Amino acid sequence: MKTSSFIFAIVLLSTFAFSCAVPIIAQGADYTPLAPLPNTLNTTDNTTADLSTYLPGIFKLLIAIAGGLAALVMVIGGVQYLSTDAISGKEEGLERVNNALVGLLLAIASWLILNTINPSTLNFNLSLQRISAPTAVTGPPDADDDGDGIINSIDQCPNTPAGDPVNAQGCPLSAAVMCMGAISGTMVPCSCPDTECTVIGSAGTGNYSSIPLKAGAGDRVATSLADRLVVMNTGFSATGFTWYVSEAWKPTVNHQNNCHRLATCIDANISSPTAANIKTFIQRAQLMSNLVAVYEVPTLAIKQQLVSAGVPSSNCRASSPGVCVVTAITAPHFSVYCSSCTRTAP
After folding, report:
1. What sections of the protein cross the membrane (predicted)?
2. How buried is 294 (Cβ within 10 angstroms: 0-12 exposed, 13-18 middle, 19+ buried)?
3. What is the pTM of this model?
4. Which of 127, 160, 155 is nearest to 142 (CA)?
5. DSSP 8-state secondary structure symbol assigned to residue 217
6. Would you list the domain boundaries of the chain?
7. 3-class SS at 324?
8. How far apart are CA 109 and CA 162, in angstroms?
9. Is the dihedral of CA 79, 82, 84, 86 positive or negative?
């Protein structure tokens, strides 16, 4: 098996030489060999060579050498087999022939295997195509049509005069959009743009104009709240129950709950604030429009009187309908909350 192993080693060496070729070297300058090997020169000038032509030539040459060696060893083995009468000599000659045949088959098999897996493997094309770096894709920035520094996608006051200071929503920080804060004497930015709010009362349009509104109490609320007030007012009108909005947006007094500055709640009142009517307003606001009505009174005595008359007690939270004590107010009234009415503006 020594002969077959030697022939196979030649083929293996040629394959290894090909696989270890570095593409960068393959792209180097051509050279002119002093003693060129057969089939290793460029076909364009037949004088120079590079790795892309030299390696295929070496591979083919080694295959040919392997075939020649196999033939030579078979001849030697045949002569040895015929020239001796000793059994051991004949066996040795026969073994040489067998080993040569095995080596030749291995050489041919190496080519067949590579050609079967991928014929392009035998082309020895070592050139690499240069890959360009991907170009970063950038879209145009969102426009700022009114030039207030707030892009259109989040600008809630799109027609702000140029140069006016604005808040994070693009609405002016002027007296027209400043609201009473939670603490007495403070003012905070607020807004109620047409994209999120609706005018109610006589200045409103459609069904919104039917919502009863006290004069000078603001005339805007969040649209989601306005829709619920329309439903509630329709139910009250059918039964002759009289009520009105006593404060919409923007608030004219200090409020602890920020919903007054967001226009997602209102203050309201009824024409006849008896215990029975207060209880009716609280119940129907919740049943008809899923609104929470909290009747705020300035003293504990008034609350206890109403509770004893059947009005539910409240802790003054927006989720607790009933009567509660707010000592800072001057006159009893309802605060009507909408838990599902949300806005993003301050």
Report:
1. 52-76, 97-114
2. buried
3. 0.50
4. 155
5. S
6. 2-123, 175-337
7. strand
8. 82
9. positive
| 273, amino acid identity | P
Separation of first and last alpha carbons in the chain: 91
Burial state string for 44-61 with b = 16 or more CB within 10 A and e = fewer than 16? eeeeebbbbbbbbbbbbb
CATH class (in words) of the domain with range 175-337: alpha beta
Q: Which two tokens stand for residue 174?
A: 């002027």
What pLDDT does residue 170 have?
75
In single-letter form, the type of residue at position 4 comes to S
Tokens of 345: 């503006």
**Prior bond to 250 cis, omega within 30?**
yes
Distance CA 261, CA 252 (A): 10
- Separation CA 181–CA 164 (nearest Å): 22
Higher per-residue pLDDT: 309 or 191: 309
Tokens describing residue 148: 């207030």
- Do the Cβ atoms of 224 and 285 come closer than 8 Å? no
Pair of tokens at residue 125: 């094309």
Block residue for tokens 């026969």: 94
* H or E stretch at 310: none
Beta-carbon contacts of 70 under 8 Å, excluding residues fewer than 6 positions away, are: 3, 7, 100, 101, 103, 104, 107
Using 50, 70 and 90 to split pLDDT, how confident is the model at 273?
very high
Distance between CA 86 and CA 83 in Å, rounded?
9
Q: Are the C-beta atoms of 43 and 67 separated by less than 8 Å?
A: no
Q: At 19, is the pLDDT very low, low, confident or very high (cuts 50, 70, 90)?
A: very low
β-pairing, 292-297 with 322-325? parallel
Measured in residues, the chain has a length of: 346
Contact between residue 23 and residue 51 where contact means Cβ atoms under 8 Å apart: no
Would you list the DSSP string of 99-134?
HHHHHHHHHHHHHHHHHHH-GGGGG-----PPPPPP
Question: Does the pLDDT at position 247 exceed 90?
Answer: yes
